Amino acid sequence: MTLLALSDALDNLFSRLPSPTVIEYLPLNECANRVLAEDVFSPVNVPSFHNSGMDGYAVRIADLEQHLTLKVAGKAFAGTPFSGEINTGECIRIMTGALVPNAVDAVVMQEETTLNPDGSVTFQHIPKLGSNIRRIGEDVKQGALVLKKGSLLNVASLPLLASLGIASVPVFAKLKVAILSTGDELTSVGEPLKEGKIYDTNRFAIRLMLEKLNCEILDYGILSDDRALFEQTFIQAQQQADIVITSGGVSVGEADFTREVLEKLGEIGFWKIAMKPGKPFAFGKLENAWFFGLPGNPVSALVTFYQLVQPALAKLSGLSADNIAKITQNLTACSAEKLKKAAGRQDFQRGYYYANEKGELEVRPIGTQGSHIFSAFNESNCFIVLEAERTDVEAGEKVTIQPFNSLLS
Ligand code: AMP
Ligand code: MG
């Protein structure tokens, strides 16, 4: 089987994976990190009344043109409007956020006035029409589209909905994801390690990332390398979850049953990607769930999760295409060192990028780039993405970098 380019694998995923259909209505304080299921239009104007942008005095410009000293007819506070009359030659004391009466046409900040002993106020100059007045609907107009279906609800968007008085919104249901690790050598974190065994890093890393992506997690633990056990567990997992994610056993070794069992129980979409790390990666469909088989090496598992599973879950969770596109952002940086690269596969090297003394982006590789060297992640802040056909990169050459998003930070 020839290796599939990552971009083709992603196209394949996006064309096959459906958008969600199950919707629930939730109060705003339960919506963090959920995906909005319908467009939201504003039921009100924001602000809903003309209000003062300053502590100062609300005036009629025509009066100031007659005389720069005005009497003070009363006070307006935020939440407590002035309800009296403002006669010719009068102004009112007004605080930030207070309703601006229709009778006035500007607010002058108090620093530009002098309060006289008799209680009147003298102004230094005549203000411009409407100055320091926040107009009705200046922020959001009634009926305007405020958030599109497929938006991520977060600190940037939820307070906006709150400011409109919207108490609950339709969101897509959380994705249910079954996770499991495969390998006779694996031991759960916290248990003593016997000779020849290693700790199960992948299930731990995958759980952390799924928690960040706000998925519901069903943990099927560690499977020993046993074909019948794989079959039985895959069947169970796909009945309970929307997505099954495994790691290990997807290569060509004698104990690698993942692909075989996927083929028997369901269908393989693609297998083997022209990327490094991460070549052995299987995507497919079981009867009731989508299937992602990550490679066993922890670095490969993490890189393929980041590059393939993350956008796939975004599509399945209902995130819009423009939001999915924001998951990975490519920048250009100068490589500070020589990078080793063989032609053939697209590389995702771990790197650290920074602005040099000229303010230009520079990047240096971290660690030896082996797919078993997980410690390099800890000091990295980006992937150095090297095109499949590219060979060694000399110091000073331009390369594409992808700063880690919040999944890895
Ligand atoms: P496999 O793809 O099953 O052949 O595994 C490839 C390499 O990754 C082997 O060295 C495994 O021991 C290692 N490996 C597999 N699964 C895990 C895991 N969950 N955590 C840490 N290392 C793993
Ligand atoms: Mg294995």
Automatic annotation (TrEMBL):
Names of the cofactor(s): Mg(2+)
Gene Ontology CC terms: cytosol
Top EC group: transferase
Enzyme Commission number(s): 2.10.1.1
Entry annotated with the keyword Kinase: no
InterPro entries reported for this sequence: MoaB/Mog-like_dom_sf (IPR036425), MoaB/Mog_dom (IPR001453), MoCF_biosynth_CS (IPR008284), MoeA-like (IPR038987), MoeA_C_domain_IV (IPR005111), MoeA_C_domain_IV_sf (IPR036688), MoeA_linker/N (IPR005110), MoeA_linker/N_sf (IPR036135)
Reaction catalysed by this enzyme: adenylyl-molybdopterin + molybdate = Mo-molybdopterin + AMP + H(+)
Protein family membership: Belongs to the MoeA family.
Name of the protein in question: Molybdopterin molybdenumtransferase
Native source organism of the sequence: Mannheimia pernigra
